[in-house]
Design a protein that fits this description.
This protein has 84 residues and is α+β, with helices and mostly antiparallel strands. 48% of the residues lie in helices and 20% in strands.
């Protein structure tokens, strides 16, 4: 299974939803809290081109935010990406 990284903030409801989806699929992920590590916010913005959280990567593929993650789940793309 591919490595999954999610940039998030603790109070963000979209981050919570995205993490719940991944947990329901029993996907291990690395969470980077951009409030605790402000330098990671700059890294996230540079790599994604976006300023909002969550920002999610599966392997080297940038999924996007929460809505993008759920869309990938609905189309089956998420399972394909997770499988590598």
């Amino acid at each position: 299974m591919q490595n999954v990284v999610i940039y998030s903030k603790s109070w963000c409801p979209f981050c919570v939803q995205a993490k719940r989806l991944l947990q329901s699929k029993k996907v291990d992920f690395t969470e980077i809290d951009v409030e605790r590590e402000p330098a990671k916010m700059q890294e996230m913005m540079k790599n994604s081109g976006r300023r909002t959280v969550p920002q999610i990567w599966v392997g080297e593929t940038h999924i996007g935010g929460c809505d993008d993650l759920f869309a990938a789940e609905q189309t089956g793309q998420l399972n394909q990406l997770l499988a590598g």
